[in-house]
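Dear support,

I submitted the protein below through the web form. The confirmation email said the job was done, but the results page showed an empty box. After a refresh the structure appeared. I'm attaching both so you can tell me whether what I see now is the final result or a partial one.
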Amino acid sequence: MPQDEDFGDALYAISGGNPLLLRALVEEYRAFPAERRAALPSPEAGGPFTQAVLTCLHRGGRETVRLAEALAVLRDVGSVECVRRLLGISAAAASQTVHALNAAGIADGCGFRHPCVPAAIAHAMEPDARATLHRDAARLLHSIGAPSPAVAGHLLAAGEADERWGVAALRDAAEQALADDDVAQAVACLTLAHRACDDDQRTSAIKIRLAAVTWRLDPCAADEHTAEPLAALRAGRLVESHMPALARLLVTQGRVDAAAEVLERLAQARGDGSPQASEAIRGNLLGAQFGHPTPAGSRAMVAVSRDADGAGRSPSPTARRAAPRPGMWAVPTAAEGEPAAAAAERFLQTAVLTDTTIEPIGQALRTLIHGDRPDRALPWCQSFVEEADRRGAPGWKAAFAQAQAVVMVRQGNLRVAEEYATTALDCLPEKNGSVFACVPRSVLIYTATAQGRHGAAARQLNQPGARRPVPYRVRAGLPVLPRLLPPGHQLLPRRAERLPRSRPARPAVGPGPGGRGALADRRGRGADPTRLPAAGGEAGHRAARDG
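What the results page shows now:
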């Protein structure tokens, strides 16, 4: 046992001089192996010291135990008045019992001498009694105007929030947690708020916010959270004020077809369902966020049809209605490229990375990358990767690592592009479960194929995520490949020409709406990388053998 004054002071500070507690504390310290002992005593919940504390409490009677439980639940906001109101006892009784706990060396004022004590007391309670006390504590703290995080903490501990004020406190606490980059706490608050809310419009709003917050950690889980507001939209129950946030979120996830559907509904809600109206709304919501609205003549990043020779062609009126609106992910024309790039860079210089700015930041980066200025986008991508890493947001990190991979593809650096795409996938808890995962996987397919490693490309095509339904997955995945490449670049035209013309090649993915969209060419024509053969087809077997 150390004999220095600091060690003795620590023993007294924890035990309050109570012989029973002091003896238990010394025994617990001695029980630790010499190599694991700290310089000062540090008891643990469930150890001899906390067992001695519980023994002292039970010797004091039921009222002493009840008041100690109330103090343990209230923690830092505990006071004689709060305890009196929480337990429904007189001020004199509360004050007398608090004094007894201080005299016994267990408490110091209305707090405990060591943090392991309240944890041990709360753990010893019956679960239902503990939940009831937390629920009552939340109601009490709300009535006296305590901060939302304190109220929300008790609601989370109780596992329920039945009243309207509880849902509001949870939502406010979630935003404060996000300000501190405590995403797990924010997700917990929003999840409980959604479960407790009984209003359709508020539940949709909470789900949209929950999807945006969850995207920081897991894009796949964020995809799942958008199912409910999308169902409300299609049933006509989603109010207009929630539609812009939902559209921006879907674009961030790469689900541009669903985002286009939301914008069409938004245009209808505003009294004009024409394609021009939804295009104008799209420009105001997306590209205009960094000061440069996307014009109608911009080059579209999605819903591009191609002939067998790779030349673009205008889709039919039927296809135009079924496909996402051109320009959802649009880049400027050559004539306005520099003004748009300058506007994007001005925005990036002042942008703060948050759940609401992630989409306009992405649009600004796309403007640079696909506006033939990828070298100017790369430093911004790296800066945002480092910030996302520092703030513990793997979903954000994956988004910017993916952008780095696209830059490297356009610059012809396939090895580094592969590294960035792998980094993006490694950030995802479920690498095959989201639309977002299709883009870095597309980069891996392209880089492996371009380097002659066809077996590696076939393995990527055969991942479980490649079998998701096309309307949900494909527009952020393989069809992005043509937009990654420099103008005029084609992928493996000779291999594509080897496909037998007498028999249709098996599509790499299933058909989109109306049997069109991102399909492998059923006639074996052309060299578009969206027409890569499936791993199970004849060419796929040959690729696996060659790789």
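Response: this is the final, complete result; the empty box was a page-load delay. The mean pLDDT is 76.
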